[in-house]
Write a structure and sequence with these properties.
Distance between the termini: 47 Å
Largest sheet: 4 strands, antiparallel
Number of strands: 10
Helix content: 40-55%
Radius of gyration: 25 Å
Order of helices and strands: HHHEEHEEHHHEEHEEHHHHEEHHHHH
Bound molecules: NADPH dihydro-nicotinamide-adenine-dinucleotide phosphate
Structural class: alpha+beta
Number of helices: 17
Strand order of the largest sheet: 3-8-10-9
CATH architecture of the largest domain: Alpha-Beta Complex
CATH class of the largest domain: Alpha Beta
CATH superfamily of the largest domain: 3-hydroxy-3-methylglutaryl-coenzyme A Reductase, Chain A, domain 2
Shape: globular
C-alpha cells in the first residue's frame, strides 16, 4: 500500500501535516518537529563535556518501506544530498516486488577479559570453564535489573590468541545495546578469573564485533520493476550481480560499496539515538572477517525466475532503551514514526534500509552512473552556498545545469547576473 503520495513535493510543514493526518505523529510530536525543539541545552550539558551548544542536521523521512508485510516510514538524519531520495526510490520499487523480509539470528552482546602472563593456558582454560555456571551467576548478580527484564549472561568461553588468554562473555541485553551492562559484569568477574587462571587481566571490555547480534534483510525484485524493457531489465540485473561480485574481490570497491550502505544505516541509527560508531566499527570488522574486506550485500540475478535477489547480513546491536535515547525529543519522535519497534524489529528495519540504499546506488552505477542524479542536488548545494535566497534557488539551479561544469565561483557569478536582470 503506497503511503504519503507526492511526499517529496510538499514543504516541511505540509509533510508534518500529512504525517499527522495519517496518524503517524501526535500533535505534540508534530510541534517538536515544526518548532525545531530538539535536544535541550541543559540535557546536552549533562550528556557530554565542555558543551557550548547543540548541533543541527536535516531530519528527513523515507516513506514506502514494506518490511515483513508491514508499511514503515523511516526517519533519516543525514546532510548528504540524494541519500533520502535514493532510499525512497528503492523502497518504492522493492515495495512493488513484495518488500523486504528480515531475520534476526541472535541478540546477544559479547565482552572480553584479556589475560596475560598465564603460565599454563590449558589448565587455566579448564579451570575457568569448570567454573562457568558460577561465573555466569556472578555476572548476573552484578547487573540484576537485566535479569528481571528477562535478559542477562548467557554464555562464557575461552580462546587463546597470541600472548593472551581471552575469556568471552555473551549477554542478552534485551532492549538496551548493553555496553555499560557488559562492562559492569566483566569487571565483576575479573578478580575471580585472575585467580582461576593465575594470569593478569589487561582489560575487561565490551566488543563491538557483535557476531551474536547478526541481522539479515532480503528482497526479491521483479525484473519488470527494473525496466519496462525486458531485455534491459535482464542486463541491469546481470550488471548489478557483477557489481556485487566486484565488491567481494576488490577492497577498494568494497569500501565504497559499504559506504553507500552506511549512507542509509547511519542516518537511521542516528535518528533513533543509537551509537553509530559502535554500529560502524562492528560492521566493518565483520566485513573483514574472512581476512579481506568485502561488500556486506549480495545481489544475484535469476533470469529464469525474472528476479533479482538481494541480501545483506551484518551485526546490528541497536537499542530502543538506554544511552541517550530517552533524553532527546526528536529521537522519541523517530521511534514513534517507526511505530515503537522492539530492538529486534529495529535491527531488521535498519538492515532493510541499508539494502535499499545499496540497491539504489548499484542500479545508478551500472546504468546512468551516479553523477547524473547527483548533478541537480550538487547544483542546489552550490546555489545555497553562493548565498541564493529560497526564491532564487530554482532559477540558479537551472542556470548551473545549463552551464556545466559548474563550481562555487560560477554559482556566485550567475547569482550576481541573476540579481542584476
Ligand atoms: P545504559 O547504561 O543506558 O543501560 C540501559 C538502560 O536502559 C538501563 O538503565 C535500563 O534500566 C534501561 N532499560 C529500560 N528498559 C529496558 C529494557 N526493556 N531492556 C534493557 N534495558 C532497559 O545503556 P547500555 O548498557 O545499553 O550501554 C549503551 C551506551 O553505552 C551507549 O550510549 C553507548 O554509546 C555507550 N558505550 C559504548 C561503548 C562501545 O560501544 N564500545 C563503550 C562504552 C559505552 P535498568 O538498569 O533498570 O534495567
Amino acid at each position: 500500500m503506497a503511503r504519503l503520495p507526492g511526499f517529496a513535493k510538499l514543504s516541511p510543514t505540509e509533510r508534518i501535516e500529512a504525517l499527522l493526518k495519517e496518524g503517524l505523529l501526535t500533535w505534540d510530536e508534530a510541534q517538536i518537529l515544526k518548532e525545531q525543539k530538539g535536544l535541550p541545552l541543559s540535557i546536552a550539558d549533562q550528556l557530554t563535556e565542555n558543551v557550548l551548544s547543540t548541533f543541527d542536521l536535516p531530519f528527513s523521512l523515507a516513506p514506502y518501506f514494506l518490511i515483513n508485510g508491514r508499511d514503515y516510514v523511516l526517519p533519516m538524519v543525514t546532510e548528504e544530498p540524494s541519500v533520502v531520495a535514493a532510499a525512497s526510490f528503492a523502497a518504492k520499487l522493492i515495495q512493488r516486488s513484495g518488500g523486504f523480509t528480515t531475520q534476526v539470528h541472535q541478540r546477544q552482546m559479547i565482552g572480553e577479559i584479556a589475560l596475560t602472563d598465564v603460565e599454563d593456558v590449558e589448565v587455566a582454560s579448564k579451570r575457568i570453564l569448570e567454573d562457568k555456571e558460577t561465573l555466569l551467576q556472578l555476572a548476573n548478580e552484578a547487573y540484576p535489573s537485566i535479569v528481571k527484564r528477562g535478559g542477562g549472561a548467557r554464555d562464557l568461553w575461552v580462546e587463546n590468541k597470541g600472548d593472551f588468554l581471552i575469556v568471552y562473555l555473551a549477554v542478552d541485553p534485551k532492549e538496551a545495546m548493553g555496553a555499560n551492562m557488559l562492562n559492569t559484569m566483566l569487571e565483576a568477574l575479573t578478580d575471580r578469573i585472575q585467580k582461576l587462571s593465575g594470569g593478569q587481566a589487561l582489560m575487561a571490555i565490551l566488543s563491538n564485533l557483535a557476531t551474536r547480534s547478526l541481522v539479515s534483510a532480503r528482497c526479491a525484485i521483479d525484473f519488470k520493476v527494473l525496466s519496462r524493457n525486458p531485455e534491459e531489465a535482464i542486463e541491469i540485473a546481470h550488471r548489478m550481480e557483477l557489481a556485487s561480485q566486484l565488491a567481494q574481490v576488490d577492497p577498494y570497491r568494497a569500501a565504497t560499496h559499504n559506504k553507500g550502505i552506511f549512507n542509509g544505516i547511519d542516518a537511521l541509527v542516528l535518528a533513533t539515538g543509537n551509537d553509530w560508531r559502535a554500529i560502524e566499527a562492528g560492521a566493518h570488522a565483520y566485513a573483514a572477517q574472512s581476512g579481506s574486506y568485502k561488500g556486506l550485500s549480495h545481489w544475484t540475478s535469476q533470469p529464469k525466475e525474472k528476479k533479482l535477489y538481494g541480501e545483506i547480513t551484518l551485526p546490528m546491536p541497536v537499542a530502543t532503551k538506554g544511552g541517550s535515547i530517552g533524553l532527546n525529543p526528536t529521537v522519541q519522535v523517530s521511534h514513534r514514526l517507526l511505530g515503537e519497534p522492539s530492538a529486534i524489529e529495529l535491527a531488521g528495519i535498519i538492515a532493510s534500509l541499508g539494502l535499499a540504499q545499496n540497491f539504489a546506488a548499484l542500479k545508478a552505477l551500472v546504468t546512468t552512473g551516479i553523477q547524473a542524479g547527483h548533478m541537480k542536488l550538487q547544483a542546489r548545494s552550490l546555489a545555497l552556498l553562493a548565498g541564493a535566497k529560497e526564491e532564487e534557488v530554482p532559477r540558479l539551479v537551472s542556470q548551473l545545469l545549463e552551464n556545466k561544469p559548474f563550481n562555487l565561483e560560477k554559482a556566485q557569478t550567475l547569482l550576481q547576473e541573476l540579481r542584476k536582470s
